[in-house]
Amino acid sequence: MTTTLPPRAGRHCHNALNPLHSAVYFSPEHKGEMAAIGLDDPSAVYFASRAAALGPVGASVVTATFYNFRHETVARHLPQVWETASPEQVLAARLRAVDTMLRRLLGEDTIASPEMAEAAELALRATEGCVRPARPLYAAHADLPVPEEPHLALWHAATLLREHRGDGHVALLAAAGLDALEAIVSHAASGHSMSPSWLLLTRGWSKEDWTAAEERLRTRGLLDAQGGLTETGTGLRKQLERDTDRLDLAPYEHLGAAGVARLTELAGGLTTAALAAGAFPKDLFGEG
């Protein structure tokens, strides 16, 4: 697909918007709302919250669509989590958490500002360019109603754009022959992911699993003896990002260069404020 956008404009916009979506999974509001409906295990909370749009699915569907989680970890919680709370209850609890979280991180003046309404309108317009085929997590969320309040509509649109991009990225990881853990290890080695300690904690893999994946990547010439990416490995990760950008071009092309630039500016300001207010744990990124 040819583009009228500046280089990497879609990726820059995604990077500005995505933290507004993903912060909810680390927020005390999310933890509290899920506990109120009977979900208190952190893994169960995450799997249920992100998968609820798919309906009361089992472990295999979540392992397939989330891609980088250990299946046995997922299977400890699904499908039995739906006996405690229905997908509809989970989705309602998640949206309540988003509401209170964004009000805390951004403040009431920002929530009610014209800029928030403008960002929501632009982000929703971008989602009109998304496509459902081969995008299961995006497609499931695309069937959810758009919230009326602008800050919730913005979060909803950011979710659609995130899952649209993620679905395409997962297909590319599979095509590149990177299994679930190899994808994580190679991304961590690039220096652009969560810290290994957080990845192990949240994805369900053991240190032994991680070491075995590193060895497989070394055998392929993608990782060096110190655990860093080789030239070949760096090339593969960069190509994956370029191809992900290509598969994710449609929503930003639909919005147009001026709209993408404005949305990136607005979302970037909101994300900067949210980060300054402590949206994520301090040890989430980097070494560890």
Integer-rounded radius of gyration = 19 Å
Q: In total, how many beta strands? A: 0
Query: Whole-number average pLDDT?
Result: 95
Determine the fraction of residues in helical runs and give it as a percent range.
Answer: 55-70%
| Secondary-structure element order, N to C | HHHHHHHHHHHHHHHHH
Structural category is mainly alpha
Number of helices: 17
Strand content: under 5%
Uncertain residue ranges:
none
Report how far apart the termini are: 39 Å
Biggest sheet descriptor: none
Give the overall shape. globular
Please explain how this structure is put together.
The protein is mainly α and 288 residues long. The chain is 68% helix and 0% strand. It has 17 helices and no strands. Helix 9 crosses helix 17 and helix 10 runs antiparallel to helix 11.
Please give the structural blueprint.
Layout lengths: L8 H14 L5 H9 L5 H10 L7 H8 L4 H5 L5 H4 L2 H20 L1 H4 L2 H14 L8 H7 L7 H26 L4 H11 L5 H8 L3 H13 L11 H17 L1 H7 L1 H20 L12
Summarize the structure.
The protein has helices at 9-22, 28-36, 42-51, 59-66, 71-75, 81-84, 87-106, 108-111, 114-127, 136-142, 150-175, 180-190, 196-203, 207-219, 231-247, 249-255, 257-276. By secondary structure, the chain is mainly alpha-helical.
